[in-house]
């Protein structure tokens, strides 16, 4: 895959993180995203899982910013994912695990379609993509943490289509 194509995907994905649509990401966006996902899956606002997700999302932001505490725009986001790929990947894996824990309402360590769909709706994933994605990742009807983590990593690093 060409770098330009991957960076274009990353710029598009930046828009899913920029909830306030102000063209930049900062620590406040991590809190907003964690709250939106928590409410979307039916968790109580401010619950432990939400706080852990917010902390994990801040780690992603810190990796993208290379320790600088300044907002980043979409171009800087895409550039940083390339430049600091290893650090960003580690942070994204932790965020994927925290997201999985937030969505796993029954605590069984696997997501069923209902849990996965609630998470996807909260993330703004189009309806038609939800069932297709779930069936590809969870042919037995339950999505394992490692498959979720792998898919999340490929998505946020721009390696999927």
UniProtKB/TrEMBL annotation:
Protein name: EF-hand domain-containing protein
Residues of the EF-hand domain: 91-126
PROSITE patterns: EF_HAND_2
Top-level lineage group: Bacteria
InterPro entries: EF-hand-dom_pair (IPR011992), EF_hand_dom (IPR002048)
